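Subject: sequence -> structure tokens, single chain

Hey, anyone have a minute? Need the predicted structure for the following. Not urgent.
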Amino acid sequence: MDRIRHPTVPSSQMLFTTVRLVVGPSEDIVGTGFFFHFGKEGDEPILSIITNHHVVSGADRVRFQMHEMLPGGGANLSSYWIDVDLGKNGCVVHPTEDLCAIPIRASSLRGGRGELPFVRYIDERYLATEEHYRRLFPLEAVTIVGYPFGVWDSVNNLPVFKGGMTATDPAVDYEGKPHGLVDIAVFPGCSGAPVMILNDSFWADANGLQGGPDGRLIVLGVLSHSMAETHQGIIAIREIECKLSEVSLVDVHVHLGRYIKARVVRELKQPVLDWYRSHI
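Reply:
Had a minute. Here:
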């Protein structure tokens, strides 16, 4: 029997936005990616999977699973595999930040038996802007969606939600760079997870109590690094590990993660558009 979901509020939509990226021939490298819609080129949507560059660096392919769209428009929680040949497809890498876009043609998301994909995209409307920052408090509840230690609902192909708080003011660049900190326990497999302010009903901002049927979704950025205390007592900022077999048991996690701010995602738009035009 088909298991059907009709996502409406932001949290249910995010179940179908992220993908569990499996990298390498042994498939022991796991990261998080999320679908992003950069607009259209003619009638074709400009789609990419956003993740950290260190997740796919040096890899020749990446795999992920998609949900099937049912005739009634809902999502069948059964899924099928998609393989992307990175050697042929390539990816768009940001020149200074640990961020990349894997361009994906909508037609390539169909299953081998012609299945249509059920997917929800993030687009530029949801990326944090100066207008958002004016209404946010320095301390906000935040959510990430990903695959900590590779954990997921493998039967239904669904991600894991983790919650925490902003650890630095979202409106201020941490250490003068396009970064911010969140108070969340960050584990291998979370690389590339979207860092969001997510409300399904009511919320408070600088203008008072707000609410609406569509809720609120603001993407602050993309998780990329964790902080840990080494055995020498030094606080180190490191790329979030992706190879699950090489997790350190010595360092002590300090439950802080660093994210790349949403405006850096916008900077990938023109290179992604150029990729599409060169692959027509």
